[in-house]
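Chapter review. Work through the record for Polyribonucleotide nucleotidyltransferase before attempting the end-of-chapter questions.
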Amino acid sequence: MGVLHEDNNRKNNYMTLHRKKFETKLFGDPISFEVSELAGQANAAVIGRHGETVVLATVVMGKQNREGDFFPLTVDYEERYYAAGKILGSRFVRREGRPSDDATLSARLIDRTIRPLFDHRLRREVQVVVTILSYDGKHNPNTIALLSASTALAISDVPWGGPVAGVELNNVEEDEKRPYHAFFAGQEDFINMIELEGNEVDEEEVKILFDTAHKEVQRLVEFQNGIVKEIGKSKQEIIFTEPDPKTVEKVRNFITPRLAKAMKEKTLNELKTELEEHLEEDEEFAEKKPEIDP
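Structure tokens for Polyribonucleotide nucleotidyltransferase:
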């Protein structure tokens, strides 16, 4: 009885969490986003729902810069057997394995959409994780996953140039053939990610496809902006380390006239070696010994 009492307390605690729910439609189909104290240690977390397909999107940013001359963004798309109502038996490995090909492609779809909107100088680790909690077999999680990730980033204190929105369009005929399958993502003024597969389609039909997708994207971005105005956090102010202007200019002057030729006749590593030797000839730069990655 003690265990039952504890479980009831946990349920009651969840029900009393401060929650905020936002509802809109995706091509006339109801979707919703819920923000609560769930995943409280994340910078932001959003539960997205489309039909009975439910996802949890969390965003976390590190407090210190990581070493390396790149932006350490990680996007994980985590599928769960229980999301489809499957509880595997003992003959299956019960540990989490590597992601499926579909999960990898879905993660890349989100990554390609959100990555260009970060400042390329950011060196703090950012992790976006989308977990599929429930899949109803009807509503593809990709769209609600991207929208939930975007909403979480937008309301968080992580510096980011979103929100974005993505929509999926299929042209399914009565004989169940699929001339095309398309996914469009972007902001109010532009589309920054397109994934399209299918047979040849008339140009006018493609134009209609783009216009239809972008109008829905614009509406969904406006919807997210409304959420940000209501509950969004102030973005962290990060001081970026800028490279020495003299070094940048010297590298640019040396590399620019040689780069096109190097792409055809020699490797970039050889060009990098030449650049390092060139800088070492200058006493000022030899003392700095800059690390250069053209």
